Amino acid sequence: ENYEEILRRNVFAQVIVVIGDEAQNSDFKKLKNLEQYPNFSLRFISEAKSNMLIIDNTEASVTLQPKADLGTSPVIWTDHPEFLAIYREYFEHTWEKAQQPPSSKKIVNA
Where are the alpha helices (DSSP H) in the chain? Predict the structure, then answer.
């Protein structure tokens, strides 16, 4: 299932990704486009051991190669309650340290 299908079901999704050069990162552009959904939040960090995703507090996935494209990195997925609790705590800690992505809106001088 892709992000848009999940978001259309009104599932709340928070995504933290490692971003180097945003202009060169195709995943960054795809994720930025998802900000049109009010139930989607994106933050980035300059360095991490993985990309993290929690869906509706019932599922979590971790990519093992944070600088790889989303579809090419090995992924660990779980819905195990104890792992979700541990993961959620780590995710929240990382979320607080992470930055919001730069705005993609262009400012036009009048």
Answer: 3-8, 26-33, 81-97
Which of helix, strand or coil describes residue 25?
Answer: coil
- Please write the tens of the pLDDT for every residue from 61-74: 888 776 666 677 78
Question: Could you give the C-alpha distances from 92 to 15, 16, 67, 69, in angstroms and in order?
Answer: 11, 10, 21, 23
Give backbone dihedrals phi and psi of 43, rounded to 5 degrees, phi first. Answer: -140, 160
User: Residue 74's CB: how many other CB atoms inside 10 A?
Assistant: 9
- Strand (E) or helix (H) holding 63: strand 59-63
Q: Convert the pLDDT of each residue in 32-88 to its tens digit.
A: 889 899 999 888 887 777 777 777 788 888 887 766 666 777 888 999 999 899 888
